[in-house]
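Protein data sheet
==================
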Amino acid sequence: MIRDRIKRRSTLGDRLKSAREGSRVGGKRLTQLDLARAVGVDRNTVSRWETGGMVPRDPKVLASLAAALNVTVDWLISGEPEGSVASAIYEDRASSFSPPATAALPAGARGLATVYLERLRASGCSQAQQRGAESLLLACARNTVSSKPIEKRADVEVSADVDAAWDVVVRILRREGIRP
């Protein structure tokens, strides 16, 4: 009764399951296996998405899910109608969602830093912790200890420095009781 009053907030998994169960193929309800085949993943993956055990992060998978379920990516991600900010996050993740400070990084390192920063947001870190982690990731990526400037270093080298910084961030946050 209380849940009805507060209108329990739906998750991506709730929306995914609702859309799947509302879809019909040949008069029959779409199964997890049917959806998995349409998207190109295992049935267990669809099950984990629906129960909230994991969330699809690949923009192509989200687009395939939306197409298979005849819904918009915006609605699937946020429950909002088409044209909301949510789809911009997944349409071109590296350029539209990356913090402006990561724009100077090579593509691979930028993508890696973006994934790590998204994990921090999802883990419940404070804004100050997120800014501090971003600052550390970028400082390590620029790595002034290296004899070459960032523009002349290979993407894999910069990515390795971002990875090393992430290890430090994780250790610090774990001491604070946060598991990114």
User: Anything to note?
Assistant: The CA atoms of residues 106 and 155 lie 6 Å apart. The two ends are 34 Å apart (CA to CA). The chain has eleven helices and two strands.
